[in-house]
Write a structure and sequence with these properties.
6-stranded antiparallel sheet; 16 strands; Membrane-bound Lytic Murein Transglycosylase D, Chain A; 11 helices; alpha+beta; thiol protease; protease
Length: 409
């Protein structure tokens, strides 16, 4: 009888152990191995979770999105959520001219998303104002809300320890340590005063102006305009600017000459003369309007370079970076753009990124401080050169949301 009781007891304990193990496995996050050419965006599509949730779960830099071949990633469940927790070392900083969320995140060793969360900003909000006080935390961490897992979570914790990189990672692949937040923040009152040269002219901003266009008209640089003026995030119509040491004088369009009709003599026997035909006047060249043909031409050309590898500063089919791809494609439709995202902003008008049509340009970052650009293909999709180690490919605003858009045509 005792033998039977022991057998029943052992069987019950074993069944309970199997039940607990199966329950733990059901709640555990998914672990995946990174293969060559894999990206965070690929995993977010495959497992139907956001890029942010994957990067937060694996301590991935949210500016570069770089992952390493052979690395083990934790893919959080759809119900998992993280909330940023500010440490006791939270620091406040006053926004200065030229600052952006991306630049502040880089300087203080944090992320744009954490800055937004600490300052109650929206998920797609990027605009900050001079004199605004922001909360900065160089050691922001995330606290998982999802149920704790067993063995898989231990491996994830090891991945998150910046001070203990995995043994297989080479020195060149090690993540750079987070920068320590500066002990002192320069007050806004000590901002450098605008420099006005003895040789200067004054200019009043008109509709359609940009710093790039004004600099081109006067033969100066955008940097010199910023140095001579206390500028806000955007130019305002009617705003007065100082242009130091101009090397060119903008050419004013000459007024059209009036053509006086010639008097005609009519003889009595002749029929009444027909009114003289006015000479056909060719209209001035107008900027190309955004048409389906223009936009589709840009998209068709961009599609030819899908698969071309990313090369820093590249602007040819041998290799492209993001702005180099845009420059090369638009040159083939007769539009010359510079090779720099901020300068490319000045070659069109700002529109809401949700209104973008094929051929428009998506930008990431603040206006005047963008760090990435892509060509819209329609329905929220785009073609871009993402980052080192990847190739020109399609992307979606569903997983990587832009900050604003520019209409070139």
């Amino acid at each position: 009888m005792n033998l039977k009781a022991k057998s029943l007891l052992i069987g019950s304990v074993g069944a309970a152990g199997l039940f607990l193990a199966s329950a733990q496995n059901a709640n555990a996050d998914t672990l995946v191995k990174v293969n060559k050419n894999d990206t965070v965006w690929d995993f977010s599509q495959k497992y139907d979770v956001s890029i942010d949730s994957i990067e937060q779960a694996n301590n991935i830099d949210q500016n570069t999105h770089i992952i390493i071949t052979g690395q083990t990633l934790t893919i959080p469940s759809k119900d998992a959520a993280t909330a940023p927790v500010a440490s006791e070392k939270t620091t406040s900083v006053t926004v200065k001219a030229g600052d952006s969320l991306w630049a502040l995140a880089k300087d203080y060793g944090t992320t744009v998303n954490d800055l937004r969360a600490l300052n109650n900003m929206g998920a797609d909000e990027s605009l900050i104002k001079i004199g605004q006080t922001l909360q900065i935390n160089g050691t922001v961490q995330t606290t998982p809300v999802a149920p704790a897992a067993t063995t898989p979570v231990k491996e994830e914790v090891v991945q998150k320890e910046a001070a203990k990189p995995a043994p297989t990672v080479t020195p060149a692949q090690k993540e750079a340590p987070a920068k320590v937040a500066p002990a002192k923040v320069a007050p806004a009152t000590k901002e450098a005063a605008p420099v006005v040269a003895a040789n200067h002219v004054n200019y009043v901003v008109k509709s359609g102006d940009s710093l790039y266009n004004i600099a081109q008209d006067y033969g100066v640089t955008v940097a010199s305009l910023r140095e001579a003026n206390k500028l806000g995030p955007t130019l305002q119509i009617g705003e007065k600017l100082v242009v130091n040491n101009p090397t060119k004088t903008p050419q004013k369009a000459a007024p059209a000459k009036k053509v006086q009709p010639k008097a005609q003599t009519v003889t009595p026997a002749a029929r009444p003369a027909q009114p003289a035909k006015k000479a056909a006047v060719k209209p001035a060249v107008q900027p190309a309007r955004h048409t389906t043909a223009n936009g589709q031409a840009v998209v068709s050309i961009a599609q030819r370079y899908l698969g071309v590898p990313y090369v820093w500063a590249g602007e040819s089919p041998a290799g492209f970076d993001c702005s180099g791809l845009v420059k090369y494609v638009f040159k083939q439709v007769g539009v010359n753009l510079p090779h720099y995202t901020v300068s490319q902003e000045g070659h069109g008008r700002y529109i809401d990124w949700r209104q973008a049509q094929p051929g428009d340009l998506y930008f990431w970052g603040s206006r005047g401080g963008s760090y990435h650009v892509a060509i819209a293909t329609g329905n929220g999709n785009y073609i871009h050169a993402p980052q080192p180690g990847e190739s020109v490919k399609y992307g979606s605003t569903r997983y990587f949301q832009p900050s604003f858009a520019i209409r070139v045509f």
